[in-house]
Write a structure and sequence with these properties.
By secondary structure, the protein is of the alpha/beta class. 42% of the residues lie in helices and 15% in strands.
């Protein structure tokens, strides 16, 4: 059988859900007997996740120093460099993950005998692009041989606004059990035994709505003197010029006791122990694609409460059956009441947590792996 050479393209392998899913797909292809390469624009120094066994990695060529400083104006040269790299790698099928890598990949493959697949990872209107990128997305997305979409709402938007006709609805596979990796951060080193913990996770504070939690925690913390809040995953270095940890601490206010009970451990590779330690997992997101952290928390048996933003949480949570969905316009007082009810009703928490674990079957990797490979095989054959 002819060997299939497939490339996955993304900006970097930094901490994030899109990066984890890409590596899962790459692993599936490698296990199916395909030759797999992961292409990133950023160097391996930014990598958080290891490559699956048998998967190669390469970096797009750097531009000459004067071109690197031109930003947008250097984009055509980046496309040309990527086109050369795809030719060198002799790829017959490529997958662009997230918007800008997908646009660049479609342009690089133009009129080459390479089939191209695109995977959006957020609901596009929730994270608007600059006008030049919106125009390029509208031009290039109809060229894709297939669009992998996480939710039907996202698929409908892409079909209506970007001409994305060929689609496969492919939610994220659940990761269970979670495997520890560095850095190992033990929650017992951060908080006392037997105190209730609200847990949130994510790398982008504004998207995840962590600032919305500050008045909620302030109110709950005044009523429950031992309650702690931990937000794991937020980098200790600035993100897009913002020190997210300092911003959230400033938003919380000057109460020294609350500040002490507000935990920001940064990047955590031992998430299973944090999920096990949580009384309630909270996700007050402004927007999502398909929230990996919520899927992981449910699989781990957490009682979860999430914002019913346009896409994502409602695909996972049936309200008061396997979690709690808060209306998108819920006030801080609504969140305080809903979380406090969960804290005060251990039997309800246990029931919701038990039902939440059903996602292990509903989003089982075995089924989604089959759908993914079956969708790609016809493209690899022709």
């Amino acid at each position: 059988m002819r060997s299939v050479r497939i490339a996955f393209s993304i900006d970097s392998l930094k901490l994030g859900g899109a990066e984890r899913v890409l590596l899962r797909w790459a692993s599936w292809c490698q296990q199916a007997g395909w030759e797999v390469v992961v292409i990133t624009r950023q160097s391996a120094q930014r990598d958080v996740y290891p490559l699956p066994p048998g998967v190669r990695r390469c970096q797009e060529s750097s531009l000459p120093w004067p071109w690197e400083r031109l930003g947008w104006f250097a984009f055509p040269l980046r496309v040309w460099k990527l086109r050369q790299l795809l030719h060198q790698q002799r790829c017959c099928l490529v997958v662009g993950v997230t918007t800008l890598p997908a646009i660049k990949l479609l342009l690089a493959c133009f009129r080459l005998p390479i089939r191209c697949v695109v995977s959006e990872r957020n609901y596009p209107p929730a994270k608007p692009l600059l006008l030049p990128w919106r125009c390029l997305r509208r031009i290039t997305y109809p060229w894709a041989d297939l669009h992998l979409v996480q939710t039907q709402i996202t698929g409908n938007w892409l079909r209506r606004h970007c001409g994305a006709r060929r689609q496969l609805l492919l939610p994220n596979p659940v990761t269970w059990p979670l495997i520890d990796r560095e850095p190992l951060v033990d929650p017992n080193d951060w908080l006392p035994e037997n105190v209730p913990l609200l847990l949130g996770a994510g790398t982008k504070a504004q998207q995840k709505g962590f600032d919305r939690l500050m008045p909620v925690f302030s109110a709950l913390g005044a009523r429950h003197a031992d309650l702690h809040l931990a937000l794991v995953g937020l980098p200790q270095t600035p993100y897009q010029g913002l020190d997210q940890q300092a911003w959230l601490r400033a938003t919380l206010g000057n109460d020294a006791d609350l500040q002490q009970r507000f935990l920001l451990p940064g990047m955590v590779g031992s998430m299973a122990s944090w999920y096990a330690r949580a009384a309630v997992f909270v996700l007050p997101s402004r927007y999502e694609g398909f929230p990996n952290v919520l899927l992981e928390a449910m699989a781990a048996g957490c009682a979860c409460i999430a914002s019913d933003c346009l896409t994502g949480p409602a695909e996972l949570i049936e309200h008061d059956v396997n979690g709690v969905l808060m209306p998108e316009d819920a006030s801080s007082e609504d969140w305080v009441l809903a979380i406090e009810q969960l804290l005060l009703e251990p039997e309800r928490r246990r029931r919701l947590a038990h039902e939440a674990m059903e996602v292990r079957q509903r989003f089982a990797p075995e089924r989604l792996r089959h759908d993914f490979l079956e969708a790609l095989r016809p493209l690899s054959d022709g």
